[in-house]
Amino acid sequence: MKHRLTLAPIALLLALNAPALAADLVIGTATEPSAMDPLFSRTGPNQNIAQQIFDRLVEPDAKLGMHPGLAESWTVVNPTTWRIKLRADAKFHDGKPVTADDVVFSLERARNVPNSPAPFSNNVSGVTGLTAVDATTLEVKTEAPTPDLMERIGFVYILQRAAAQGKSLQDYNKGDGTIGSGPYKFKEWVPGDRVVLTRNDAYWGKKPDFENVTIKFISNDAARVAALRSGAVDLIDGVPPADLPTLEKTAGIKVHTTPSARLIYLALDGTRDESPFVTDKDGKPLVPNPLKDVRVRTAIAKMINTPAIVERILNGAGVPGAQLVPDGVQGSDPTIKPIAFDLNGAKALLAEAGLKDGFGITIHSSNDRFAGDKDIAQAIGQMLTRGGLKVNGVVTQPYNVYAGNATKQSFSAFIFSLGNTTPTSGPGLRNLFMTNDPKAGTGGFNRTRYSNPAFDKALTEALSKFDEKERITGIQAATRMVFKDMPIVPLYWQTVSWASKATIAYEANMSEDTAANLARLAK
Whole-model pTM? Predict the structure, then answer.
């Protein structure tokens, strides 16, 4: 007995002095990235991975406010010259410091990444000169006054020149050149299964809580929820709205919800004389393409009962949309209202356009990008049928395939989204609606190839104003112009939810980012 009493305090002392067991995190995510190169695509799944490995000059907060990242400060020297000061304590994962030369390399590389489905070239368009003044000072010259420069270049991921220069997409996917300065280091990517990251203990910012992070790709909604409930994963994104009430009442699980600035929309191929999935009532190609007529595009908008979609498919997890960004984001125009569901009005517009008997069309959508995407596509197909069109089919694809096909103009009517991640709607309008011009770096997300010179001019002039009130007023005027033309049909802004074990705290954010650096051990 005496022997046992002697050992107990010793064992307790050893336990108290032992290091705490390292915490690991397993995330179940709905959508897989298409590459590990952080500059390959600005699409959400790619950015979710990139932001954990790489830093940017600025970082958004949960409400889209912009804060210093690698850039400690920035100064407007004159309307076309900026000075950016980098923080001196940032180091890449191999221990080398982040320098202005690495930033120059990254911004120059962003101009032309081959085969990018959503390029960063828009972020650096108009930049005419990049100079590393010293190790931590960067000078940027622009072709014209660019008041929102940091909203553009600030969101480009910064790579290490020595590690990344000359690397191919396949090299990045294997981890060669995938060296950032972010909170986690790249370990492996197993396509179709997982990405594995490890903690960067030398991170300059807030230290991550998790030593190892595994991001599992679980596209099926039911399987993703089941994985959380069984304990196979610690955190999931893309929580189906129908499951929210149950998960909110489940012991040991927390739900994290926020309105987002992601607009879900129906894009219409209104530029080509012949569109691949537009037919007559007999299924033969229809020329000229009726989607070129704004009356037809408006008629389609009137056929879609968006409030019903939000209520019945999303269980209320959305807000019917009328423009690019919701109230609260600068550039939103309160005079623009959602188009009302009006079948009689839609049929009247079709008749006015000489199409009283309608025409044939196919709806395309992703099936794993956001909650209910494939169900929404089916619902829209039914609504267009009731509106007098012949819906030849509803086709859905995995997002990492679908996004590339949409960029190649493979569709006629397709559901897509744009998540605004900046304090104003200016960059989003520039990317989505300005004339697609790779050299000018405009219209990088303009998958319909919409082009309106008057809109281009109005937005360009607005974005050149250093006076904030004048700039926002100009952005609103350009917004009214483009949505009157109806190149896309706004559907709704998402309300997004994550769910986790109760031991995990998660920062629900309007950018809809799913990343380990936004998760913490609950206190």
Answer: 0.83
